[in-house]
Design brief:
Udp-n-acetylmuramoylalanyl-d-glutamate--2,6- Diaminopimelate Ligase, Chain: A, domain 1, two-stranded antiparallel sheet, alpha/beta, 127 residues, 5-stranded mixed beta sheet, 14% strand
Amino acid sequence: MKVDRNKETRKKFITVGFLFEAAKDRFKLRSLNGENGFENHIREKNLHRPGLALAGYVELFTFDRVQIIGNTEIKYLNSLPLEGRRAAFTTLLEFKIPCIVLTNNNKLEDLLLQAAANKGIPVFSTP
């Protein structure tokens, strides 16, 4: 019987804090809402773009992955009135997301960053 040694030593998860420390210099990650949630577990190595979840479709939402919010998601959020942005973002926060990464120096309003912090979901930014 052949044993896959990689399978034996593969980690079941890493913490968000571990990811942040390992990637902050390479990707110039900045924490936007503190260290609350750095103990959250990342169990899935793939990333997810939550565009459909922001639009309200969450039936197949893979929330257990790092969520990447890029230009498309920000453009969609910014097309909504304030209450619509709040509702769309709150939909994401109903799930146990490990963390959110904003790409291309995109911004979220302070009230959305605070809502994520209140749920223990770290938000990071890249240039």
